[in-house]
Amino acid sequence: MADQNVPPRRPRDDRAWDGRQDPSPDAHREHGPTTAYGPTGHQPGQLPYHQAPYPGRPQPAYPTVAAAGHDAARRGPRWVGPDGLGGPARPDGPGLPNLDDDGEPGRRVGRRRALAALGGTAAVVAGGAALAMTPQVRGLLDLGDAPIGDATGTTVTDGSSVRPGGQQPSTVRTYTEQNESYMGSRAGAALKRNTPTGGRTFSGPAAAAEATEVTVKTVLAKDPVRHLASRATFGATPKLLADIKRMGIDAWVRQQLEPEKIAPSAAELKLSELPTLKLSPQQLRDQRDALNERGAQPERELVDATIARQIWSERQLFEVMVDFWNDFLHVAADFDGGEIYRASFDTDVVRKHALGSYPEMLVAANRHPALLLYLNQNDSRADAVNENLARENLELYSVGVDGGYTEKDVRQAALLQTGRGVNDGQYVFRPERHYLGKVKILGFSHANNSDDPKKADAAIDAYIAYIALHPSTAKYVAQSLATRFVSDTPPKSLVDRLARTYAANKGMIKPMLMTLFSSSEFWASVGQKVRRPMEYLVATYRALGVSPQASPDFQQRDSRRTAFAQGLRQVQDKMRELGQYPMGQPTPDGYPDVYVAWTSAGTMVNGWNEAGELLGGRRTQFTYTPPQKLVAKPPATAGAYVDALAQRLVHQKLSARERELILDVAGVSAGTRVDATFDGAVAAVARAILASPQHHLR
């Protein structure tokens, strides 16, 4: 049997640069048993799918209805969040972060209840398909227990599927399969019913936008400019919307597909303040001891830089695609070796090919020390084969679990890939470790009998390129891309057209994106995606117009790092609390990209409270627009002021009910006269808008 080793985690000092202990991943809940990847192998706010370490990953964490022994009395409210789908509902009370501006006695609707009503709706409404709230949110609202048949109940699938004959049951859920498994819940079924079906491709994005009628139920404005900004970027801003309107949809999309022609933002120029980011792997190795003495963590600075680009870069579509590939072709930042090699993998593999050729990306990844070390390929040799990389190349990075391969294919691929490894920090091919003999994998065959190291190594490249262009890979990439940009349950019509585009263009990504943006399914899917925790936080920074320059109130207490570097680390720490940060998934599958995986009341409230921190200007490493200046000329009445703030922050009107709830946060009626500070409540009102469905949906 092949050795299947756990990708090692680097022994870490979890203290910050100033020596303080970093925040717990989730201070509001008890920790479960640990695995090789840390507590239960999943992040707070995200449902687990691995209950065992990587080598024994096989068992899905989702019981079938029969296995769970459900009866009518047990089909009531179930906790959907950090402790997993289908677990018993946890009691209200301790364990849920507090809203920090609770209602005052005598208020008609307290601030807590009003804000939770807005955000609770946001977290459980995707495109207007109403899903029941978690017990924690119901507790915030004093609504009591959910009725039997709650839409977040435990009717789930086990993630299994019908596989081609001869293929062994998979021991891992792929990026696409884990998404589909989450969507097997009743909540997922509600989303499926509200997803557009069928469609066509037009001559360009603008033509598709103009011709497509949005028929799905949604609270979002059916505005194509807002929709494009929400999906193709990390969050709309007034400037971004104005740019799209000025340039036109087609011209803006074309510009975004040529990121090298877009000037770097002020924040991107400030990335030079992250000292390890510009060091090569060799320099990082040579300076490792000195960096450790200074408390430097290169892999965390890489995450800091990624966050900065997501918030402030003008190359927004490029950054969205970088995030997509970091989930699809995933190498965790926090693995043993990540501090040396992960930044290079980001630059030389992901960013280099994010809008280029996926076959070239996969070939480059299979030659990069980061992936080779992460999946233990350095330990694989002809007489002791390690199957990790060979298996993930098939299951995660190319054809997918339903791609038609067998366990024999995995074994043959593992034999072919022997000899590849890392020596002195560089990729190396060791012919003495390479298996010689004919191999056949998914229709690829090779004599593999050359003593010439270059020819033997080239045979591996040829195999990787072959599986990258396999028809099953085309479908797998298409499904994943459509899940990211269109819907948690993307229409088959769109997936099929994207797969054909992939095949016709030999794995080039730009033609796929043009097909996607020129498709009616994309423009018809308004409100069909919910922001994950990281996306919510980034969108909040963008919506509030936070500047990367330090506030005049900033006080320098750490001479080793600039204000900008300190601010980015605080954002990263907050993302870790929320359960999602760039390259943070420890296992090779990447983060799930569907709403049902992230329905956590604790995460939701934590995000609202962070919005309150930003509105209060309490992160002094950055500069903020004072909330009373978000609207240039604040109206004199409360109702009109709420409308103006909504237009500024979420770029559309709110429903009458949402408007009423937000007015309740301030304790006023629509006709009440207010000043620019909303009589002192403008920050609370703005935060309530950022807790609305319009900000949670994208």
Please provide a brief summary of the model.
The chain crosses the membrane at residues 114-133. This protein is mainly alpha-helical and 698 residues long.
> Residue ranges: pLDDT <50 for 5 or more in a row?
1-97, 101-109, 120-173
Distance separating the two termini: 46 Å
Number of strands: 10
What is the global morphology?
globular
Residues in helices, as a percent range: 40-55%
Mean pLDDT over the residues:
80
SS content category: mainly alpha
Transmembrane segments: 114-133
InterPro entries: DUF1800
Keywords: Membrane, Transmembrane, Transmembrane helix
Region (Disordered): 1-107, 152-174, 186-205
Characterise the protein shown here.
- This protein is mainly α.
- Among the domains are: 359-395 and 404-468, no CATH class; 628-696.
- Helix content is 43%, strand content 4%.
- The protein is built from 31 helices and 10 strands.
- The strands form 5 sheets. A two-stranded antiparallel ribbon has the order 1-2.
- Strand 5 (125-126) and strand 6 (129-130) form a beta hairpin.
- It is globular and about 85 Å long.
- The chain starts with 33 loop residues before the first strand and ends with a helix.
- Residues 1-97, 101-109 and 120-173 have low confidence and may be disordered.
